Amino acid sequence: MRLRLAPVEHKVCATADCGGSYEGERCLQCRSAFDPALGRKEPADRLILVDVDPAIYEQTYRCRCPVCKNLFDLREENVVVRAQCPQCLQPLFSRVQLQTMWRDTETLLQRARKLERARRQLAVCPRCAQPIAVESWCPLAPTVPHDPDVSGLPQNPIVVWVRTFHISESLEELQKEALDEAWRTASEETTSTSDEEPADAEEH
Ligand SMILES: [Zn+2]
Ligand SMILES: [Zn+2]
Ligand SMILES: [Zn+2]
User: Fold this and answer.
1) φ, ψ for residue 124, nearest 5 deg
2) How many angstroms does the Cα of residue 133 sit away from the middle of ligand 3?
3) 72 HSE (CA, 13 A, CB side)
4) What pLDDT is recorded for position 190?
5) What's the confidence (pLDDT) of residue 54?
6) What distance lies between CA 129 and its chain's CA centroid?
7) Which ligand has the minimum distance to the alpha carbon of residue 70?
8) What distance in angstroms lies between residue 23's CA and the mean position of ligand 2's atoms?
9) Ligand of minimum distance to the alpha carbon of 72
10) Which residues of 40-176 form beta strands (DSSP E)?
């Protein structure tokens, strides 16, 4: 077990006036769930415990949008969607074209970049002849202005550390949970006490 200063991925709450920063699925301050189309993910150097079992943090690759610096996870399904026409949902490229396009690629990011380049060369869909709209791969693009001429795909991925949640929550979260629990218990006791009194009164 050792301490290490490392870039840790955290989420920035998108709720107005909250500005909370958290690593789980919900903001610790306002409890709203993370929405990748609204909330940013950023790296920040933090001291973390590594070489522990189960791991508290794991290293992973993320794309960092060259426009807004948001971190995002590139998945196979994102590439599958971009290989289709958004109008008729037919493949934009044949199997052979894809094989040729991806011959020298090793990573999903490299395949995504090659696909994006080829896609931008097609003015219209070869099946339905509808124009193919270009848009950034960054998940914030629908809500934050992104230049459509920029793909949003970086040259190389960056390495960040992401909380695994294999073991208990952070001290900060434990304290918050404990407070919530204490609050709930206290309010239940108040409710049950006030319920009992009229019931007793009726029996007598
Ligand atoms: Zn919040
Ligand atoms: Zn972006
Ligand atoms: Zn089409």
Assistant:
1) -130, 160
2) 11
3) 25
4) 54
5) 87
6) 34
7) 2
8) 19
9) 2
10) 40-50, 57-64, 71-72, 158-163
Evaluate if residue 193 carries a pLDDT over 50.
no
In the reported structure, the alpha carbon of residue 102 is separated from the centroid of ligand 2 by a whole-number distance in angstroms of: 25
- Residues 9-30: pLDDT tens digits? 999 999 989 989 999 989 999 9
pTM: 0.78
137 vs 166: which has the higher pLDDT: 137
Å from CA of 181 to ligand 3 middle:
54
From CA 16, how far away is CA 157, in angstroms rounded? Answer: 30
pLDDT digits (tens, 9 = 90+) for 87-134: 999 999 999 999 999 999 999 999 999 999 999 999 899 999 999 988
Q: Which of 144, 145, 119 is nearest to 134 (CA)?
A: 119
Is residue 63 classed as helix, strand or coil in its secondary structure? strand
Tell me the CA–centroid distance for residue 31 and ligand 3, in Å: 41
Q: List the shell of residues around ion ligand 1, using CB closer than 5 Å.
A: 13, 15, 18, 20, 27, 29-30
Rounded to whole angstroms, the maximal C-alpha distance in the chain is: 88
